[in-house]
Design a protein that fits this description.
globular, alpha/beta, five-stranded mixed β-sheet
Length: about 160
């Protein structure tokens, strides 16, 4: 699929390991406006978790990289939400909570109210400082929501 080889220092997660997490931030490259096939294959392998709804109620956010501005930043997020919905996960969008960084017009910046993003071009472009700030903000934001939800007792 012309993807770069995986680095040896990057672990491969197995579907059952998702059970260990209280919340998620799923990130992936976009291919033609949807998550890359490798990422979709991983979600397809979670069928046993889906059948038991083992991930239902867990919060999840999304981030991505696309080749350029017409590469499907928002479409990638919207099509990924289907994976979360079928599992019963709670989608946590970024919204406009990142403040003025969401409205920056003086530099190229990926991301949207759906989540953080970057433009990778041919793979040689690195995320800008603003894109990194948005990504770290999203991580903190989803973690705070996850913590709040975990600490809320269920009503009888």
């Amino acid at each position: 699929m012309k993807a770069l080889p995986k680095s040896n220092d990057v672990a491969v997660i197995k579907p059952e390991q998702l059970l260990e997490a209280d919340g998620f931030l799923f990130g992936f490259p976009s291919r033609f406006g949807v998550m890359a096939a490798q990422c979709k294959a991983f979600f397809d392998s979670t069928h046993e978790l889906w059948a038991s709804q083992a991930l239902a109620g867990k919060p999840a956010g999304i981030f991505w990289s696309t080749g350029f501005h017409g590469g499907g930043q928002e479409l990638t997020a919207l099509t990924a939400v289907t994976q979360l919905a079928h599992h019963g996960m709670l989608y946590v969008p970024l919204g406009y909570t990142f403040g003025s960084g969401m409205l920056e017009m003086n530099e190229v910046k990926g991301g949207s109210p759906y989540g953080s993003g970057t433009y990778a071009s041919d793979g040689s472009r690195q995320p800008t400082e603003l894109e990194l700030q948005q990504a770290f903000y999203q991580g903190k934001y989803v973690a705070e929501i996850t913590k709040k939800l975990k600490n809320q007792p269920l009503s009888p």
